[in-house]
TrEMBL record:
UniProt record similarity statement: Belongs to the HEM-1/HEM-2 family.
Protein name, UniProt field: Protein NAP1
A UniProt-annotated Pfam family: Nckap1
Gene Ontology CC: SCAR complex
Species: Salix udensis
GO biological process terms held by the UniProt record: cell migration; cell morphogenesis; cell projection assembly; cortical actin cytoskeleton organization
């Protein structure tokens, strides 16, 4: 009977503390909402700004007594008008209640319950704040069931962190270290000793947040599973799409600004994970090309002979016998898209590293530039060049990337690939070229055939 009463008492105290912590989390979430701090930092998207400017050009300029925008967007400073004071008062009240509650929880002594069970409210507070941050992080990864723009995600994380730092001032414990642990866990999972393994692990260790974002980029940009018409535009250094990919056009999530935000949020672990995904995917595509190469081996030998003999009629006849030529072109274009995207990712990572750790960037750059090509085969040298290439320090990123893939799949030393240049040469006879046009505005072709050119030029160099 005494034991049952003791258990009930423990459960009651525990539920009471959890209710208080739930209220604390609710106050934090009120502040971290579009009606809270979000209302003070609202920025118009480029599309909204254009709509606002177009509307403003057709009507008279609003008077000082009218804080409302012409197309439904509030003007800067709208919250200072008397009719909007209620929102500011609500925000101030939520902040006051949050700080008061934190002060009370911080001053509470440990609660000694029956059966020598001790409750420490400050520890519950810490776990509640960190657990709430993790849930909010996972919740804002996607907007309307689609990927959140990395720059918006970064802004939302900073907004929540500002509230956590405010809470940290009223409670005597280090929340910053806990936040760092949460972010690291969502970027990388596994034992700490595995954080800096240079060998490819049997199982890729990544956090759930990183996995969600990387898979989205692979499926919607590199593979274009939704058929959004993804095109790489060399001039603008981004991917564009003929229709939205989910909630955005491709350029809204693939330009250097967005990729830099991705690097700042997920760090080198996110970059490594996305890079490894693209390498694995490209390796699969190269294996498919290898299969086509072997199935057309005899025909390609005949094509090679006719090329050397200069017999054009015979060469064209043999070229028409190659099986699945259009499929091979598709493999090459998709591999070229991965190559182009990794180049953008490496450039973004290099910019972030240069801004955040200029000394490390300078050291890595100095070392990479003075590594002789003659000793490339050494394991340590390959490791340094691989790290340098991941932040776009090596002069020719694409060549280094393809070489590392071929070393993994064994294609670099496979003599059966000697006919690969002839296979790529026959791609010029494809009907794909009949509908190909160059776009001077993007610096590329209308069907991404320039991605095929990148891959078909680099792969034979290392075979």
């Amino acid at each position: 009977m005494v034991t049952k009463i003791g258990r009930d008492a423990i459960l009651y105290v525990e539920s009471l503390i959890e209710s208080i912590i739930g209220g604390l989390e609710g106050l934090i979430n009120i502040l971290d909402s579009e009606g809270g701090f979000g209302a003070l930092e609202t920025q118009l998207l480029p599309e909204q700004a254009a709509l606002y400017l177009n509307g403003a050009s057709r009507v008279s300029i609003p008077t000082s007594k009218s804080p409302k925008g012409v197309v439904g967007f509030p003007l800067p400073g709208h919250e200072s008008y008397p009719e909007n004071n209620s929102a500011i008062k609500m925000l101030e009240a939520a902040m006051q209640r949050l700080t008061n509650l934190l002060s009370v929880l911080n001053d509470m002594e440990p609660i000694l319950c029956v059966l020598n069970h001790v409750f420490v409210p400050r520890e519950y507070t810490r776990e509640g704040i960190l657990g709430n941050f993790r849930r909010r992080l996972l919740a804002v990864l996607k907007a309307d069931n689609d990927l959140q723009q990395p720059s918006v995600l970064e802004s939302l994380i900073h907004r929540h962190l500002n509230i956590v730092y405010l809470a940290e001032q009223h409670i005597s414990m280090d929340l910053t270290h806990g936040i760092q642990e949460v972010l690291l866990t969502e970027a990388f999972s596994g034992p700490v000793c595995s954080l800096h393994l240079f060998e490819k692990p049997a199982e890729q260790l990544t956090g759930s947040a990183t996995e969600v974002v990387c898979i989205w980029y692979m499926e919607n940009i590199v593979k274009d599973v939704s058929g959004a018409g993804i095109l790489f535009t060399p001039i603008h250094k981004c991917f564009k799409s003929t229709r939205p990919v989910g909630g955005y056009f491709a350029e809204s999530v693939t330009d250097l600004r967005e990729l830099q935000a991705f690097v700042r949020v997920f760090g080198g672990y996110g970059v490594d994970r996305l890079d490894r995904m693209m390498k694995d995917h490209t390796a699969v595509l190269l294996n498919c090309i290898d299969t086509s190469l072997r199935s057309n081996y005899e025909v390609l030998e005949a094509v090679a002979g006719s090329m050397h003999s200069g017999d054009r009629i015979e060469r064209e006849a043999f070229s028409r016998q190659i099986v699945d030529l259009e499929t091979v072109i598709g493999f090459c274009i998709e591999g070229g898209q991965a190559l182009a995207f990794d180049q953008l990712l490496a450039e973004a990572a290099g910019l972030v590293l240069g801004e955040g750790s200029p000394l490390i960037y300078s050291l890595l750059s100095g070392v990479a530039k003075h590594i002789p090509e003659e000793i490339y085969g050494k394991k340590e040298i390959r490791r340094i060049r691989g790290v340098a290439n991941s932040v776009n320090i090596v002069g020719d990123h694409d060549s280094e990337w393809i070489r590392s893939i071929l070393e993994d799949v064994g294609g670099a030393n496979d003599g059966s690939w000697t006919l690969l240049p002839y296979l790529f040469a026959t791609l010029m006879t494809s009907n794909t070229w009949n509908t190909t046009g160059f776009n001077v505005d993007t610096g590329g072709f209308n069907n991404n055939i320039h991605c095929l050119a990148s891959l078909s030029f680099l792969v034979p160099l290392y075979c």
